[in-house]
Each structure stands twice: as structure tokens, then as C-alpha cells.
Design goal:
- By secondary structure, the chain is mostly helical.
- The chain has five helices and four strands, in the order E-E-H-H-E-E-H-H-H.
- A two-stranded antiparallel sheet has the order 1-2. Strands 3-4 form a two-stranded antiparallel sheet.
- Helix 2 packs antiparallel against helix 3 and helix 4 runs antiparallel to helix 5.
- The termini are far apart.
Length: about 240
């Protein structure tokens, strides 16, 4: 699942966003996974329904691919496991955007990468085995040729689809490891050579020079206008004369 905008981790948007079903279905990874699911269904369904016939000289049902039962068993096993795996990884693709832990997303992408790579190789082996056994089948009387050809063809198509899924998983893994889009904060190491903390250290300091204020001297020729307080200007009234009664 690829996200082209916003913060993301391992190819999926960060947890907390809503799920858009239409956008999820239109994604290339989802389309290729659905095709892989259909191809696996065709392979094992063709063999289980028309992959065994009763030869004229035997009463036991045998595989239509050169009467090699191992080829049919291998193709059915690979197809059934691939069918179930496609369903499981589709559910995982829906759940990955809701994972808040990046480590869990990493494990999910690694599981997708490992399984897709392994099944690309196993489908290649299946195609080579079925094509070889079908080329050695000379007596095709009573054999459903269309079912045999469809099995071989869709085995080849599965190589391509699972290879594309491997490429998508590898791209998501590299994106999650090399292009970390989740913002993180790391405390800077302390610097013991500066008196300021490293976070608040001033970038530049231009002190303003201090100019002292000057005052003019008080002139000496100005008369003193102040008077001493509580000065009485009353004149003496003479000697005190007591009243007569």
C-alpha cells in the first residue's frame, strides 16, 4: 500500500486516519493481490475438478499430466496455500494503517516480502513441472486439454503477479527503513564550554553602550528664595498688664 502524501511509515499512513475502501481497492498492490487470488483459484480448482481421469487400462484415477500424481498434488498444494495467503494478506493490508507501532508494521511488511518471494519461486517450479509433464503426455484421449492448458498458463501468470507483490513489499520495506517520515525528537548533547544551555544559547549579542546623563551646575548668583519655617513676624506689645476687677 503506497502513500504519496503526508506522514507515513512502511508505505501506510499514520494511525488515526479513516479507511477509504474505494481508494484501497484501486491501489496497484490490492489489484495484483486479487489477481493472484483468482489465478490460484483457477489452478487448484482445475486440477481438483478435471485433473484426474480413469485410463482405459486402469480403474484408478490418475493425474492428466503424464499420469504423475506428484505434479497434481504439488500444484494443488501451492494453489490452496496461495489462495488462503492472498485472503490473509488482504486483511493485513487493511489492518496495517491502524497499527500505531512502527515495529509491528515492519514485521507485517517483512512477512509479506518473505512469503511473496518464496511463492514466486514455488510458482516457477510449479510451472516448469506442469509444462514438462504435459509435454511428455502423448496419449491425450479423454483428457480435458483446456483444463490442462489453463493450469499451466495460470501457473505462469502467478509467477508474474507474485513477483510484482515481492517488488511492492521490498519497496515498502526500503521506504520504511531509509525514509523515516515519523518525526522524532532527540535531546542535543550538552556543551560544557558555554555558560548557556544548548537550546537557549544566544546566536549573537550586541550590547548597547551606556552613556551617563550629565547635569548643569546650579548658578551661585540666584538669590535664595527659601525662608526658615515657623517664623513669626509679630511685634512685641509691651509689658503685660493684668485686668482690674
Amino acid at each position: 500500500m503506497e502513500e504519496t502524501g503526508g506522514a507515513s511509515a512502511y508505505g501506510a499512513s499514520l494511525a488515526g486516519g479513516g479507511f477509504d475502501l474505494s481508494k484501497f481497492i484501486r491501489q496497484p498492490q490490492t489489484i495484483v493481490r486479487l489477481l493472484s487470488w483468482i489465478f490460484a483459484l483457477v489452478v487448484f480448482a482445475s486440477i481438483t475438478t478435471e485433473g484426474y481421469i480413469n485410463p482405459p487400462h486402469s480403474s484408478e484415477a490418475q493425474c492428466i499430466f503424464n499420469q504423475n500424481d506428484s505434479a497434481c498434488h504439488y500444484a494443488v498444494g501451492i494453489g490452496v496455500i496461495a489462495f488462503l495467503a492472498c485472503v490473509g494478506f488482504l486483511v493485513l493490508d487493511v489492518y496495517v494503517p491502524f497499527m500505531s507501532n512502527a515495529q509491528e508494521r515492519k514485521y507485517a511488511v517483512m512477512a509479506d516480502l518473505g512469503f511473496s518471494g518464496a511463492w514466486t519461486f514455488l510458482w516457477f517450479v510449479c510451472f516448469c513441472l506442469l509444462a514438462s509433464q504435459w509435454g511428455r503426455t502423448h496419449d491425450t484421449r479423454g483428457i480435458p486439454r483446456d483444463a490442462a492448458r489453463a493450469t499451466v498458463a495460470f501457473s505462469f501468470f502467478s509467477i508474474a503477479t507474485w513477483g510484482i507483490l515481492t517488488y511492492f513489499a521490498l519497496a515498502r520495506f526500503r521506504r520504511g527503513v531509509n525514509e523515516v517520515t515519523i518525526p522524532t525528537y532527540t535531546e542535543p548533547p550538552p556543551d560544557h564550554h558555554t555558560p548557556y544551555p544548548p537550546t537557549y544559547a544566544p546566536t549573537s549579542y550586541n550590547p548597547t553602550p551606556y552613556t551617563p546623563t550629565t547635569y548643569t551646575a546650579y548658578p551661585s548668583n540666584v538669590p535664595d528664595m527659601q525662608q526658615p519655617p515657623f517664623t513669626s513676624n509679630l511685634q512685641p506689645q509691651g509689658e503685660y498688664q493684668p485686668p482690674n476687677y
